[in-house]
Amino acid sequence: MRNLRRLSLCRRISKSSALQIMLVAMVVCAHLRKSLMLGYIKGLQYIIQHESIPLSEEKKILKEIKQLENTRGEVIANAAVRAKIQESVVHMDKEALQDLVKLIGGDLDGGRKEQQAVRSKIQQLDDGIKAVDKQISSIWDELKIVTDKRDQAQQSSFTFRQQLDQQVKRLLLPKP
């Protein structure tokens, strides 16, 4: 029964009013975060002032208070930005919101087209890299063959030189 009530309530709410409700909820959450943070800071300060705690723990609490106070400005700024967004959306009509959605959708389509162009360029470059890798591989194979032939030529040159040296020794040495 409750689900039917929720469903009928959801059907009655138009898209723009649902968006307004959502934005109001975001602003309320930001305000709650800010008030909760302030309450937490006050609680930590109370602990430091009224309870006897070790110095090391007091330093940790002070450090945490400083961190919270540093982020307090960000929370307040975020709340202000959300309030401005909520105010601007409340004043927008349904057609303006649809135009904004179309504009964002167009930007997304343009981004997708750019991404596809970049992917095709990357694919072309990858194909080029593969072709160059094949050429390098074939050149290495040729180098190995040429190196083997050079080594064989050096070896045969070495053996011929030894044979020549032996023949020269035999010719130059007197026969006993």
UniProtKB/TrEMBL annotation:
<dbReference type="GO" id="GO:0005789">
    <property type="term" value="C:endoplasmic reticulum membrane"/>
</dbReference>
<dbReference type="InterPro" id="IPR055282">
    <property type="entry name" value="PPI1-4"/>
</dbReference>
<keyword id="KW-0175">Coiled coil</keyword>
<keyword id="KW-1003">Cell membrane</keyword>
<comment type="similarity">
    <text>Belongs to the plant Proton pump-interactor protein family.</text>
</comment>
<keyword id="KW-0472">Membrane</keyword>
<dbReference type="GO" id="GO:0005886">
    <property type="term" value="C:plasma membrane"/>
</dbReference>
<keyword id="KW-0256">Endoplasmic reticulum</keyword>
<keyword id="KW-0812">Transmembrane</keyword>
<protein>
    <submittedName>
        <fullName>Putative proton pump-interactor</fullName>
    </submittedName>
</protein>
<keyword id="KW-1133">Transmembrane helix</keyword>
